[in-house]
Specification:
About 25% of the residues are buried. This protein is elongated. The chain is an alpha+beta fold. Strands 1-2-5-4-3-6-7 form a 7-stranded antiparallel beta sheet. Strands 9, 10, 13, 16, 17 and 18 form a 6-stranded antiparallel beta sheet that branches. The chain has 3 domains: about 5-120, Immunoglobulin-like (Sandwich), CATH 2.60.40; about 130-225, no CATH class; about 230-400, sav2460 like domains (Lipoxygenase-1). The model is unreliable at about 45-50, about 105-130 and about 330-335 (pLDDT under 50). The protein is built from 7 helices and 18 strands.
């Protein structure tokens, strides 16, 4: 499809280049890589075609129908051996890369492509020419500048320590040193914050590295820690029926064993103390209070729990917040659909931290643990829960050790 030949007539006496004929050729940059026949490596480096350092960029010009000229830099052309055969690979060219042989013979009138490799070729004198080392260094230096990283400049100095670009490479390394230390500093801070895993450690990390690589992950870690005062608000709508259907929002204060210490650790809008018959709308310590049910209409209502985490007794390890369907025994077999939304709100800022939607009765379970607040050192963390109970509040009470006999 394509034919590649070496020419000097199209470029003038002081220059040389490649002429490509074939379809779909356009003006623009073409990458070229050379490999001498009989050698396993490209002409200017030690590896395969796909190594970036092996390639040079040539500016292509359309000079006739289906013809593209590619001038070669004189600094590169003078290193090729006269009357030697080379493979040249061009990419992109029309529909893709093209590989073909050319004979480097500026004195030959016929410069047709080489169709088959010649017999074994002796090592080229160019390999012993010190100029080729500098040509390789020039191409490697261009690659290092394009990457502009400590790794690229370090690799350049390791391969070409005596190059004329060596001092520039060392200066570039010195320039990049502060940025590298900054990355190292963030990495150390991230590891320290992970080890401490506290609200204070993640807050300090975000202040110091708000625009860093770990910022989003640190933000998510910090969001799991709760402010000291919260409100859990549940709103619900009864579909297709009126009162006495509704939703109860309750709290269970739990020890590390996952059980209440007694019935007083169960806070709701209706539960009573068996000794005094008083409604237990707040915990004895004052850490959790139930606002009672506030009806907007026969089918719409809301209920809230106010939580002060600073007042929670030290023997309490978790607070389970639950929602359950409130229905009398006579109506348990003809439950309507109830949609509810539960919001966790930062009291001081009035901000909704997270919200859940759930269904009950005809479209869902009758009881659900919505969230779990768990002590984490001196802080409290939020944990989502998916535990459901078909027997509603009775199943929830039995799960957490409340006497429902």
């Amino acid at each position: 499809m394509y034919r590649i030949r070496l020419s000097e007539t199209e470029f003038g006496e002081q220059s040389v280049g490649l002429v490509v004929t074939g379809p779909n050729l356009v003006n623009g940059v073409v990458r070229a890589c050379f490999k001498r026949w009989g050698y396993p490596r490209p002409y200017l480096h030690l590896h395969g075609w796909d190594v970036a350092d092996n390639w040079i960029e040539l500016q292509g010009h359309i000079t006739g129908q289906d013809q593209l000229t590619l001038p070669l830099p004189s600094a590169l052309a003078r290193h090729f051996d006269e009357n030697s055969n080379y493979l040249v690979k061009l990419d992109p060219l029309g529909g893709g890369s093209v590989q073909q042989g050319v004979r480097w013979s500026m004195s030959s009138a016929a410069r047709a492509p080489v169709n088959k490799p010649p017999a074994a070729i002796a090592p080229a004198a160019v390999e012993r020419d010190p100029g080729i080392s500098e040509a390789r260094a020039d191409i490697a230096w261009q690659t290092a500048q394009a990457l502009d990283s400590r790794e690229a400049y370090s690799a350049f100095l390791a391969a070409h320590p005596s190059s004329r670009h060596a001092d520039e490479a060392r200066s570039a390394l010195a320039r990049l040193a502060p940025a590298a230390r900054s990355v190292d500093s963030e990495e150390l801070a991230w590891r320290a914050a992970c080890g401490a895993d506290s609200k204070a450690s993640w807050t300090a990390f975000m202040i110091a590295h708000s625009d860093g690589a770990y910022a989003e992950r640190a933000k998510a870690k910090l969001a799991a820690f709760m402010p000291p005062r919260l409100v859990v608000r549940t709103r619900w709508s009864v579909i297709g029926a009126a009162a006495p259907y509704g939703i109860d929002t309750c709290a269970f204060l739990l020890t590390p064993a996952g059980q209440v210490r007694g019935d007083a650790d169960f806070i709701s809008s209706w539960a009573t103390d068996p000794d005094t018959n008083a409604i237990l709308r707040h915990s004895p310590c004052g850490s959790v209070r139930n606002s009672g049910i506030n009806k907007d209409s026969e089918r719409h209502a809301n209920e809230s729990l106010e939580i002060d985490l600073d007042q929670v007794p030290s023997e309490i390890d978790k607070i389970a917040v639950t929602v359950s369907m409130n229905v009398d025994a006579a109506r348990q077999h003809c439950l309507p659909a109830v949609d509810s939304t539960t919001e966790l709100i930062d009291t001081a800022r009035g901000e909704v931290l997270v919200a859940w939607q759930s269904g009950h009765g005809a479209v869902g379970s009758r009881g659900r643990v919505m969230l779990m607040l768990q002590r984490h050192g001196s802080d409290w963390k939020l944990h989502r829960s998916s535990e459901t109970f078909e027997d509603g509040i009775y199943g929830l009470c039995k799960r957490f050790g409340v006497d429902v006999a």
